[in-house]
Each structure stands twice: as structure tokens, then as C-alpha cells.
């Protein structure tokens, strides 16, 4: 398609990750001229949501599209200015140790399928049959949840990007404890109506939940635990089982979480209940990348220009200031550059912490007695924990009858072994497909020119709070005078029937 | 009509004659049965005094997206259809997703059309899924004087079908429009368009001119007709879903008070 891109902008944004896309929308709303580029043919980079075909291609090649490398030195003759060029890197370096495996037959011949039909109970899947409905899969590379009262929800509403996205409640909050999966009573009404908690424990749980909810900075109640862990506090007030419920599921903590941090996190969880049903979390239909696509759409509606499948080969710097981007043989100039950490030139990029991730396709829910939808399971072990997110058919992420399971955490192998079967054991969900990899966070290590703003890739938190904070920070550097997502003037009233004026009658004649 | 070249749908269009409404004679003249405009009911100044008209008609809302290469005339087409005007410099309204057109359909229905413009995302073949989401109908447009834009319509069709279907899983009804038929310098043959639109499952095609206003209303009327038929089969359209939409809590409360 047409390649007559204008050559100067206020802001060029390189990469369509979550932070980059939020900044794109925020900046375009203030009237700045934005160019948003991505080397891939899809939105989101490591935040993308992919169909099964694209996901399998991504697993094999590291990107869901086949790139052709351009002449490396082509940009060096672009300008007679004294510019120093820094070559951009590949986001692929964020992934290592990737393995994947189909655990079912390639194809089931037509003739055999007929008699099998009667006693088929999930064993009738074949790779071909699943690939045939590839488009019904929306598999997230970086699945994350929204706190119902968190900053992402607030910005979505304020920006009106919320109109592009629909949500489901995360309706099963679960924990793996004593070799079984249990539902966590989250709210006081859950505790009240729970049949598995006896009257004495109910009273204790209520008391603890109330103290956490009423916590303020001056709260004398927690002060005696100032240098102790949250678990110490919980164990002193509750039976061990319920202490674990609150520590792992409600506070998303571990044995070492300090008491005050645990109380704050638990309070946040509890304060998010009741806004959108009795669950503190929301999950976007069609996957997490709907959010960033919503921000990209808004940027485009505010005249931002989008160009996917477009690489920037090098970043040009003049003295100590960023000057422009060399892309496809031309130099694109802008006042500011917003760039994904994963694409930063090697002089500025370092490898940060890493975590193990797995994606499974299964034939049964881990918690069949729960409500259909989204389940969040915490899997604590002695020295670490895994977080497991399961999506069923009504999330639009997977065909009906199948499940997508996303696992984050360094003890994920143990969780997989205990929760799923590779065949044989019919009581557990069977793994039809599995993919495992290690995700490395890239960090900006060198000193970047002031007008380059680096954006982190997916971190390991379950929510988007850090991404919103970072986007606002970058926005403030580019537009120091403006409010982050200042409310828009009300949309003009839709034209009434009047434009249907009689003159129209003659137009087509 | 000089440039009116409907594909296989030509006959379908003429099957349903507009229902005549009991209009006063002077109004009837105004809406000549052969003219395009007669397919809608066109309100006049008499309406506000006519109680028969003021009854509340059932409403339907359709989302229609208009896609195609840059400069083929998508925004001009929307502008012509909604505002009945043509400006060379028209850039679309910054900050607004879609233009709204209200059509009185056979005097028995109000059809509200959200016409989604592509905004700045047209420089490459890949749109966000949020743009395609929940769309009921699609217009893919090319420029008769630009052969490349005709060839690219297939990419647009594939992008659409890859990212979006109707709620029953069937493909989104998609109409092919050959714009700029007022210009002399044609690069695409009618026979090619005819076979192309059949091979690629477009519901129909026609030549249009957003500049002259040719076949703008007629083509949209045809698309509405097809969307209405789907709507009949597909009862989930225009129905409430179980998913949540985020709303400002205060606004929600206010709205509840009014109810």
C-alpha cells in the first residue's frame, strides 16, 4: 500500500505494546501529530493476542509474520547532518527456552470417527480439527486482569476507550491447597453464605476482613506487626487454611510479604468487590490486546497515522538529542520518540528479571463445579507460587468445549503435573497442546537522549497498574502542561431526520 | 441510470417495492416512485402536525464499516450519504468514531446507521479488531481510476473475514463499490469487477460517484436490505449480551434515577 508517509511528526511511537499504545492515544488527544509504527503485521508485540495459526507461527519463528530484512546500510546516506545511527534490536530476544508440543493425533480418518462418536468424551480431538477453528482462538502472549476499581478501568472510562471493549467477571477465585482446588470466599457475603466454613471460623474470617478493609495509615491494629510478615499476622488470627486463602488469593503475596504490604494489597482487592459483580477482577472479551487496540483506534480517530509491518532500522541522534528514525530508506523526524524497551539499540538495552510461562489447550475445566467463564487459581508451593488463569468458551478466546490455560511462575512444572494429565487420567483436564517459554524483561540501561522515552514490556504482575503509571509518566514528559486523558467535549448531537431533506431525492436521479 | 451496473443482485433490489404510505397528494409528488429517495420515507415540514407520523417507530441500529485503500473516496462517500455534500479537502471529524445516519425504512422502521470511517489506520492492510467488532455490514471501496486499489480490495476482504463474523458465525455482508465513476480515465473493466465480486463472495457491487452523488443512496439502501434480512435470521443482533461494559459509576446512578 501507499508509502507516501509524511516525514515530520510531533511524536513517533515505535512498537504497539500496552504502554506505547496508551501514550499514543493520550498524546494524539492533545492534538499532537503521531506516527505509530510496528515491525509486525499485528498489534501488540509481546502483548499480542493471536489466533491459533498465528500463535503457532509465533512459536516457530518468534513473530507471527515473515519479515524480509532490508539493506542494513541503506540509512547511512540519508542525511548530510552529523547524525549518529543506533541500530534497533529484535523483540525476539525477550523469549528463550521455547518448546511446544501437540499431545493428540494429527487427524482422525472419517471412517473411524463414526462409531467412536458415542463414547467420545474429549478424546475425539485431532490437531486438524482444532486447527480448522483456528480463528476461534484468541491466545494472549501477556494475559493480565483489570482491577474493577483500578487505574486501567479509570483510564478506560475517562478516555472513553471503554466503548470498544467488553468484559467478563473473573468469576472463580480459587486456590490449590492440601492437594485440592478450593473456592476462596472473597467478600463478607461469600464468607457468610459459604457452606464449607464453620460458624467459629466465619466469625474469625469476618473479623480479619473487616480489619483489613478499615485499614488506614494510622491503624493501630497492624502496628505490632510492622516488622513481621503478613502471614504472621494472619496465622495469629486465623486457622492456617484461611490464612493461606487471604495471603495467596486475596493479597497475591507469599510467605515473605511484609505485613503492611499484604494488608494494602488485600485491602485493594476487597475494595474492588461489588462494582462489576462479586469479583474484584475483569477480563476483556477476546483477550488483553483488545485494550491496546482500543487505545490505538482512539489515536487513529485523533488523526494518528498507523503503519504496521514497518521496521525502523536505526534511531538517529544528533549530539545528545534524538533526531529521527531511519525506516525503509527514508528518515522520519519527530520531536519525541517513544520506543519499546525490546527494540532499543543494544547500547541502551539490558536484560532484566525473567519468569517461566506456559500456555495449554485443555479439554476440561480445572474447576468444573464453578461458573463458566474465567477462573484465577493461585498455586502456592514452599518456595514460590504459580498463577493460573483459565478461560472457557464464553470469553471468545477459545472454541466452546475447550479451555485455554495460562500459567505464570517458576514452579509451573509442578502445577502442571498436579493439575493436568497428558492422557490416561480422566479425572483431570487433558493437555491437548502445550507451549512453554521463559519471558525476559528488557530494561533500559544506558542513558538515552532526553526526548527518547522507553516503555517496558509485559511484567509479571496480574494487573495493569504499573503500565498506566508508566504511560502517564511518559505523557507528562511530552505534554507537561496537559492533563492525562482530559475529558473530551461532549459528542455533537447526532443529526436528526432533517438531513433527509427533499433535495436528496434529486441526487441519484 | 448511466453508470448503474449492479451485479447479480440487480434483480434482488427490485423485488421489494416500497410500501406506499397514505400521503397527501402534494407529498406524493415530492417522492417520485422511480427515484432513489422514494425508498425511504422523507419527512417534510408537514410532519410535525401529522399525528400518524409521530407514533414511535421501532428502531434498529446497524454498524457499517467502510474500508479500502487511501484516497479512494471513503470519507467523501460517508459525507455525501450523511450530509449530502462534497468537499475536496474534507478530512473527517477529528475525535469521532462514526457518522450517524437515520433512515426511515418503508415507513415502518427507523434504521440508525453508524458509519465507521477508517481514520488514520488505512496506510496498511491491518485494522484493529476493535474497529471491525460487532459490525453488521461492510463497504469495501476502490477507485475506478486506480487498478491497484481494486486489487487490494481482496486484502481488505480477507482482513475483515479473518477478524470478524456476524454473531452466528457467518461472514459479514460486504458490498463492493467502484467509486469515482464520474472520471473518464478508467483502469478497471466492468467484466473484471463482475467476475471478481462473485468469486470473492461480495453481496453485490455497483459504480458510485461520491462527488456527483451517483448511486450513493441506492447502494446503501441495498446494504440495509441485506442487513435487515440477516437481522431477521440472526436474532442475537441488537440484543443485550451477558458481557459487561464499563461505565462511569456516577453516570450509571444518575441514569438509574431517571428510570
TrEMBL record, chain A:
Gene3D superfamilies: FAD/NAD(P)-binding domain, Guanine Nucleotide Dissociation Inhibitor, domain 1, Guanine Nucleotide Dissociation Inhibitor, domain 2. One of its GO terms (molecular function) is GDP-dissociation inhibitor activity. Coiled coil: none annotated. Keywords: Cytoplasm, GTPase activation. InterPro entries: FAD/NAD-bd_sf, GDP_dissociation_inhibitor, Mrs6, Rab_escort. Residues 484-509 are annotated as: Disordered. It is found in: Cytoplasm. Its main location: cytoplasm. It comes from the Eukaryota. The keyword Cytoplasm applies. Pfam families: GDI. GO terms for cellular component: cytosol; nucleus; Rab-protein geranylgeranyltransferase complex. Residues 494-509 have a biased composition (Acidic residues). GO terms for biological process: intracellular protein transport; small GTPase-mediated signal transduction; vesicle-mediated transport. PANTHER family: CHM, RAB ESCORT PROTEIN 1 (PTHR11787:SF4), RAB GDP-DISSOCIATION INHIBITOR (PTHR11787). Belongs to the Rab GDI family. This is Rab proteins geranylgeranyltransferase component A. It comes from Nezara viridula (Southern green stink bug).
Automatic annotation (TrEMBL), chain B:
Coiled coil: none annotated. The keyword Membrane applies. Keywords: GTP-binding, Lipoprotein, Membrane, Nucleotide-binding, Prenylation. SMART domains: RAB (SM00175), RAN (SM00176), RAS (SM00173), RHO (SM00174). Residues 24-34 have a biased composition (Acidic residues). Residues 17-37 are annotated as: Disordered. It is a lipid-anchor. Its main location: membrane. GO terms for molecular function: GTP binding; GTPase activity. One of its GO terms (biological process) is endosome to lysosome transport. One of its GO terms (cellular component) is late endosome. CDD domains: Rab32_Rab38. The keyword Lipid metabolism does not apply. PROSITE patterns: RAB (PS51419), RAS (PS51421), RHO (PS51420). It is found in: Membrane. Belongs to the small GTPase superfamily. Rab family. PANTHER family: RAB FAMILY, RAS-RELATED PROTEIN RAB-7L1-LIKE ISOFORM X1. The small GTPases Rab are key regulators in vesicle trafficking. This is Ras-related protein Rab.
Amino acid at each position: 500500500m501507499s508509502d507516501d508517509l509524511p516525514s515530520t511528526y510531533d511524536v513517533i511511537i515505535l512498537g504497539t505494546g500496552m504502554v506505547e499504545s496508551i501514550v499514543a492515544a493520550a498524546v494524539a488527544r492533545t492534538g499532537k501529530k503521531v506516527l505509530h509504527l510496528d515491525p509486525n503485521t499485528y498489534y501488540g508485540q509481546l502483548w499480542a493476542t493471536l489466533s491459533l495459526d498465528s500463535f503457532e507461527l509465533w512459536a516457530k519463528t518468534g513473530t507471527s509474520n515473515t519479515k524480509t530484512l532490508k539493506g542494513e546500510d541503506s540509512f547511512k546516506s540519508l542525511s548530510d547532518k552529523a547524525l549518529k545511527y543506533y541500530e534497533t534490536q529484535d523483540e525476539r530476544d525477550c523469549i528463550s527456552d521455547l518448546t511446544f508440543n501437540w499431545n493428540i493425533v494429527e487427524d482422525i480418518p472419517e471412517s473411524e470417527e463414526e462409531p467412536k462418536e458415542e463414547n467420545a468424551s474429549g478424546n475425539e480431538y485431532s490437531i486438524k480439527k482444532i486447527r480448522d477453528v483456528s480463528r476461534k482462538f484468541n491466545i494472549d502472549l501477556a494475559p493480565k486482569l483489570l482491577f474493577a476499581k483500578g487505574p486501567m478501568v479509570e483510564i478506560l472510562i475517562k478516555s472513553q476507550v471503554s466503548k470498544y471493549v467488553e468484559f467478563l467477571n473473573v468469576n472463580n477465585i480459587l486456590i490449590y491447597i492440601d492437594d485440592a482446588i478450593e473456592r476462596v470466599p472473597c467478600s463478607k457475603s461469600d464468607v457468610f453464605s459459604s457452606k464449607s466454613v464453620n460458624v467459629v471460623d466465619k466469625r474469625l474470617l469476618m473479623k480479619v476482613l473487616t480489619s483489613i478493609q478499615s485499614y488506614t495509615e494510622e491503624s493501630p491494629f497492624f502496628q505490632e506487626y510492622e516488622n513481621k510478615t503478613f502471614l504472621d499476622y494472619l496465622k495469629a488470627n486465623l486457622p492456617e487454611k484461611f490464612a493461606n486463602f487471604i495471603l495467596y488469593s486475596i493479597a497475591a503475596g507469599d510467605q515473605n510479604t511484609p505485613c503492611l504490604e499484604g494488608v494494602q494489597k488485600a485491602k485493594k482487592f476487597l475494595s474492588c468487590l461489588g462494582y462489576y459483580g462479586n469479583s474484584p477482577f475483569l477480563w476483556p472479551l477476546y483477550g488483553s490486546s483488545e485494550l491496546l487496540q482500543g487505545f490505538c483506534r482512539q489515536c487513529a480517530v485523533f488523526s494518528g497515522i498507523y503503519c504496521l509491518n514497518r521496521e525502523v532500522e536505526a534511531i538517529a541522534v544528533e549530539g545528545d538529542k534524538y533526531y529521527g528514525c531511519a525506516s525503509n530508506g527514508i528518515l522520519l523526524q519527530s520531536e519525541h520518540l517513544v520506543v519499546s524497551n525490546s527494540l532499543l539499540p543494544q547500547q541502551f538495552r539490558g536484560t532484566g528479571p525473567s519468569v517461566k510461562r506456559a500456555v495449554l489447550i485443555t479439554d476440561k475445566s480445572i474447576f468444573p463445579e464453578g461458573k463458566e467463564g474465567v477462573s484465577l487459581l493461585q498455586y502456592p508451593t514452599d518456595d514460590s507460587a504459580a498463577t493460573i488463569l483459565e478461560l472457557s468458551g464464553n470469553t471468545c478466546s477459545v472454541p466452546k468445549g475447550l479451555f485455554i490455560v495460562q500459567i505464570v511462575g517458576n514452579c509451573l512444572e509442578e502445577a502442571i503435573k498436579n493439575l493436568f494429565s497428558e492422557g490416561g487420567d480422566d479425572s483431570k483436564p487433558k493437555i491437548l497442546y502445550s507451549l512453554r517459554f521463559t519471558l525476559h524483561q528488557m530494561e533500559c540501561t544506558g542513558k538515552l537522549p532526553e526526548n527518547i522515552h522507553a516503555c517496558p514490556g509485559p511484567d509479571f504482575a496480574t494487573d495493569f497498574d504499573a503500565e498506566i503509571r508508566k504511560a502517564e509518566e511518559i505523557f507528562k514528559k511530552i505534554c507537561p502542561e496537559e492533563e492525562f486523558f482530559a475529558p473530551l467535549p461532549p459528542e455533537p448531537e447526532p443529526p436528526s431526520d432533517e438531513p433527509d431533506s427533499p433535495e436528496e431525492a434529486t441526487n441519484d436521479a | 441510470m448511466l453508470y448503474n451496473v449492479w451485479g447479480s443482485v440487480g434483480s434482488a433490489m427490485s423485488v421489494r417495492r416500497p410500501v406506499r404510505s397514505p400521503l397527501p397528494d402534494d407529498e406524493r409528488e415530492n417522492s417520485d416512485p422511480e427515484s432513489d429517495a422514494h425508498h425511504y420515507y422523507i419527512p417534510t415540514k408537514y410532519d410535525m402536525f401529522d399525528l400518524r407520523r409521530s407514533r414511535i417507530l421501532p428502531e434498529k441500529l446497524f454498524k457499517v464499516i467502510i474500508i479500502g485503500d487511501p484516497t479512494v473516496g471513503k470519507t467523501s462517500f460517508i459525507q455525501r450519504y450523511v450530509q449530502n455534500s462534497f468537499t475536496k479537502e474534507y478530512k473527517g471529524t477529528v475525535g469521532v468514531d462514526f457518522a450517524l445516519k437515520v433512515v426511515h425504512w418503508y415507513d415502518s422502521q427507523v434504521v440508525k446507521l453508524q458509519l465507521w470511517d477508517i481514520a488514520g489506520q488505512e496506510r496498511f492492510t491491518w485494522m484493529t479488531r476493535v474497529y471491525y467488532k460487532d459490525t453488521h455490514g461492510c463497504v469495501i471501496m476502490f477507485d475506478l481510476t486506480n487498478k491497484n486499489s481494486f486489487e487490494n480490495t481482496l486484502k481488505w476482504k480477507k482482513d475483515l473475514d479473518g477478524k470478524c463474523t456476524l454473531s452466528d458465525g457467518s461472514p459479514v455482508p460486504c458490498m463492493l463499490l467502484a467509486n469515482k465513476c464520474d472520471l473518464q480515465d478508467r483502469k478497471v473493466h466492468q467484466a473484471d469487477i463482475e467476475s471478481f465480486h462473485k468469486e470473492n463472495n461480495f453481496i453485490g457491487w455497483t459504480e458510485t460517484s461520491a462527488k456527483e452523488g451517483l448511486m450513493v443512496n441506492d447502494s446503501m439502501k441495498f446494504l440495509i436490505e441485506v442487513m435487515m434480512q440477516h437481522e431477521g435470521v440472526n436474532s442475537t443482533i441488537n440484543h443485550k449480551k451477558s458481557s459487561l461494559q464499563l461505565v462511569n459509576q456516577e453516570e450509571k446512578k444518575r441514569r438509574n434515577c431517571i428510570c
